[in-house]
Every structure is written in structure tokens, then in C-alpha cells.
TrEMBL record:
InterPro entries: Helix_hairpin_bin_sf, Isy1, Isy1_sf. Residues 139-156 have a biased composition (Acidic residues). Transmembrane segments: none annotated. It comes from Probosciger aterrimus (Palm cockatoo). This is ISY1 factor. SUPFAM superfamilies: ISY1 domain-like.
Amino acid sequence: AGLGEFRIRDLNDEINKLLREKGHWEFRIKELGGPDYARIGPKMLDHEGKEVPGNRGYKYFGAAKDLPGVRELFEKEPVPPPRKTRAELMKSIDAEYYGYRDEEDGILEPLEQEHEKKVIAEAVEKWKMEREARLARGEEEEEEDIYAVNDDESDEEGGREKGEEGQQKFIAHVPVPSQQEIEEALVRRKKMELLQKYASETLMAQSQEAKTLLGL
């Protein structure tokens, strides 16, 4: 450790260089038919070094493991907190999560009422200023009473008339069938259903042809 940072780094680089050269010779010996020293050879020197996770091959020996910037690489990262499942997240979701209980504390409503009064006062003040400006220009017109009822309005638009005693009499603008016409239509519909249910196709064709001839 007393050699200094730069000397320690140089020595560590030299050791790694010799280890790589040793590995190349072991591979060449195996290639020539000799023993596989990478598998059966001593590992004492390799065990003294320590690899940085994610940096395969390069090792740090002795004081090199305590160099600035290297020590942090060997520190284990804190285990991340367990991730909650969807079911666990749904347990904490209630009416308060969606904002339905914002008014229960009695704080929001007074603030809203105060803001509402302020907005109304500003709108009224703006209307008064615009009205005074129109009066100054002589552009003020009589305001129309939107609630006034005009007696001359056509009763046909509302589809009603007043009877002799003042009662409202509604006028239908579309033809309304009478009770007899409704009964006849129901009878015809019932006949058609029975014909479709029991009559053959030939009889149906003859019946349709007869109706066509009779103009029905």
C-alpha cells in the first residue's frame, strides 16, 4: 500500500499481462497435444485476485483492491425493494384515492365559496364598466326581458289552442288512426301470421296473385 497509487496500478497491470501470457501458453500446449493446465493446473495465483463484476478477465491484487474508484466497484449494490404486485397496489385504492373525500375535512368548501364570490364580483364589476362605457357612447339600448310572454305568438307553433272555457286543446299535426282502424290492422296482421304459419307456398302465391288482381 505504501508504493503509491500509480505504482500499484502499474504492478497490477503487469500481473494481469503475465496472466494473459500464461493463458496463451497453456492454450498452445493443449493445442500441441499436451496437458490442459488451464483445467488441472494450480489456481493459487488466480484465487488471490478479484474480478470486478461485469469486467471478465481483469483482476485486482493486494492493495490494488483498495485504490480509489476500485473499492466502490466491489461494494455490493443494495437489494432493490420488492416490487408490489397489482393486487397489493389495488388494496390501497379507495374513495379517497379518487378524490371523493376531499370535502370531508371542511377546508375545500370555504375556499371554493370564497373564490366563487371573488369571481362573481369581478364579473359584475366588468359588466358595470362595460355598461358605463356604452352609456358614455350613447349606445345603451333597452334590455330585452327574456322572461316576457308574447300573447301574439302563434299557437300553432306550440301545437295547441284554447277552448271556450280556457282549457288547452292540443292539435295533432300528423294523422292519428281511429280505434276501428287499429282493430282492422290488428286483424289483418293476425291473418297474415296464420297464413304464413299454416298455408303452403303455392297457396300464398295464389292469395298474393288474387290480391294483386283485386287491387288490394
